[in-house]
Write the structure tokens for this entry.
Amino acid sequence: FPVTIATIDPLPQAPIFDDYGIAIPYTLTVENQWGCVSSAQLVVNVNPKPKAGVIKGPSSGCNDMSYGFSVEGNNGSGTWGVIGSSSLTMDAAGHLIVTGPITVPTTVTITYTVGLGWACPPVSVATHTFTLHPIPVIAPISVPSPACSGLPYSLHSGLTSGCVGCTYTWTGPGGTTTTVDPLVMPPLIVTG
């Protein structure tokens, strides 16, 4: 018996197919010369194109904090990743994790990939740029010794790293706050 293989364009392309896929039913009917008929059915599941969506989250932060990211507009679960630092990784919930020593500031690309292991390539990758900044490192505060009642004294400190465009705020008794630069508090007088 001759066999005919048909190549059928299932339906005109539409955005909804790209996002969610579609199930398309087909029926093959065969009638022989004696009028006997049989049929077979098949449902073709047309897979969607992977769609990673858009990553939502901060664009920068401090290296002593933890940060979480989310994704919107994706059509399947995906895999988080980080490009640009071997000391940063992402967990399955979208949290940025420091796994080793890191030099700050550093800028990395957060990725979310949908389609790994899917039957239909290519994968879809969403990206988001994130910069990790250093926190200021403050040297111990010192005071000339001794501090005597009725006599002025000044407090001193210094930064060892991480201060570009910093402001300096001293807070003392009674809630007094003074912002100064450099890290020297104006002379104080304690009266007894």
Notes: The mean pLDDT is 79.
